């Protein structure tokens, strides 16, 4: 299968497995990734979704060879799938971690930006060739990228098509952490296991509140924070966590 699925305890690992085309996506494989997002959302056993790639790339984005032979109808479907993935990722009430193991280019970077955390291998590199090819970005990138790295840096990356390495990506906030290549899966697994051990309602509240705050007024954000945290306080998982924390503090 072009996307391999493996569940390790409460963490679902989805691996894009088309190394011969640097894990590029055509219509069928975008549909499969959308199904992965939906299944992760519907599976009560899954607490965290990890997305990564096989070989030298996380993903080189849309399959240019396939695009070249598309009619306008198929291209519209391709665009629609990237937009659908952005919506599915935003609405997934579980953390999504992108383990960026190599080239993360164009639509591959769009997919990475849909994820909540982006952990990059030291050898990973990033670029947005849209301007050079005569396209403009999809997948929510025009919304997400300026909020993550700032408008000026977003314009620079898009207009120049400049490729940057993992160190620079971390410096500008494009990725949230860099790991040595051989340690990437272990580090992502460590973060995913930590998240999987947290009360799920709290994780859902954090993701929902921060996403909503991007579009909300300050007062609306305060109201939403209050409502979510009241629900969290009443949650049995949270109450158990508080009790365990207090018990640990009482120990000599």
Provide the fold topology.
Elements: E1 3-8, E2 11-16, H1 27-42, E3 48-53, E4 57-59, H2 64-68, H3 72-91, E5 96-100, E6 103-105, H4 107-114, E7 117-121, E8 125-127, H5 130-133, H6 141-149, H7 151-160, E9 164-165, H8 166-171, E10 177-179, H9 184-196, H10 200-213, H11 218-234, H12 236-250
Parallel strand pairs: 2-3, 3-5, 4-6, 5-7, 6-8, 7-10
Antiparallel strand pairs: 1-2, 8-9
Helix pairs in contact: 1-3, 3-4, 6-7, 10-11
In short:
The chain is α/β, with parallel strands linked by helices and 252 residues long.
Keywords:
alpha/beta; 12 helices; single chain; 252 residues; 4-stranded mixed sheet
Question: How would you describe the overall organization of this protein?
Answer:
It is built from 12 helices and 10 strands. The model has no long low-confidence stretch (mean pLDDT about 90). It has about 250 residues and is of the alpha/beta class. The strands form 2 sheets. A 6-stranded mixed β-sheet has the order 1-2-3-5-7-10, sandwiched between helices. The chain has a 4-stranded mixed β-sheet with strand order 4-6-8-9.
